[in-house]
Amino acid sequence: MNKVDTQTLLTQNAYAKHRGCSHAAVAKAIKAGRLARCLHRDDKGRVRIDAAVADKEWAANTNEMKRTNGSAKESESLVHTSVTTTESLPVGSHSPAPSAESRTAGDEERFKTEMLARGEWRATAESQNGTIGFHLNGLYSPLGWKSWEDCVQEFLATKDGQGGHDPAKLKVWVNTVLAETWEEKAEGVDADSLKARVEPYVAEVPAGVRLLTAAVDVQGDRLEAVVKGWGAGEESWLIAYSQFHGDPGADEVWNELDEFLLGSFEHESGGTLKIDTTLIDSGGHHTDNVYKFCKPRQNRRVFPLKGMQQPGRPIVGNPTQNNSYRAKLFIVGVDAAKDTVVSRMRLKVPGPGYMHLPDWVEDEYIAQLTSEKAIRKYVRGRGAVREWIKTRERIEAFDLEVYALAALRTRGANYLRKALQAPVAVEKSITGHPTAAPEPPAEAKQEPTHHHPRKQKVDQPRPVAKKSSWGRAGIRPRPWGR
């Protein structure tokens, strides 16, 4: 080694960083004589490396042909996708070679020590401050440690006996043997499949609907509400979706909601339907406001709800009045309700359980419908559990579907059957006589009328409202909390 100006020379650590390899690899190359002319000593006798010369020596003294067993191919990493099995012993325990053509005796595990010696460290990540990182899985374990056969046998042990794998066991194998992160398999619905089902409604409420329920979600600066129509076998139709902007801690926004819930919806038969049951989420920051609104409207079946994530809990149970307002509160089993809603969004053919969407529905609403997915995760002491996770920030539409279904279930199974047998009510005019639906021109009968919820609807003449009908027909609304 020569003593030269060390201003442009690198330490072994610096050169390892320059090459993207480990300090041990550089030290080994020096010891093996593959790096020689590039080495110099500084005034204190420490070894320094001329990077330009070292790069040439490294390239010249690295036998690519030898490192790939006579093939000029690039060296490859040992990955689990190379592992194959036969009916007897896993071939992967002897040969992780990427293809049958390249398999030679040099690929067998008994040559692992030699293969590891010829290998090189390649950085797979680098931080902003220049620190580099490496990825190394269990297939690289030296002879006498974990063998390839051990890796394969541990993988086979994760099978559940039904053609699949136990998620908890497979997760451990992926983390500890492959040194990879575990990605939970999610169960959800694709938004494009829902967009394909949108359809025009002939009337605001299609003929198959016999019962309406509403659901309200309380946000920090608004209320969001949907109205769902229900038919045979709980086939459903989205009837209306509205937002009421304002502070939920003030009266004005609740007055608007109340007027909306009091409204009538035009049925395809010429009659009208009113909302039968409404559930309002009380789990946010305005719990008292929700109770205050619902308590005096219980005779109209307007109730607060509280969602509870608990496996096995039914969609809805008996109400409780354990609150300061003594309002009837329904506990909703959101896990069961979400499972039901998602399974119905997967149905392709109209019929029992099928969810109809009108052609006025916006892409944002559909995106929110598909905003949660179910995954299975391992929880210490509980084993594998199923959990719903959000895939986007806004999920109000999905929550409202859950609440509207719960509102229907508060009525019981027999109530919907009776509603299906009852005729649709015909709203009376001011004179007290039924208002006949106007006969459309012959040409108009051929084309369906598209109704956007509550936005294009023209108010019909109504009788003078009594005290119980405040907020409509020009009567000044009284404070909603009284």
TrEMBL record:
Pfam families: GpA_nuclease. Residues 64-88 have a biased composition (Polar residues). Residues 442-460 have a biased composition (Basic and acidic residues). Residues 132-414 form the Terminase large subunit GpA endonuclease domain. Residues 64-109, 430-482 are annotated as: Disordered. This is Terminase large subunit GpA endonuclease domain-containing protein.
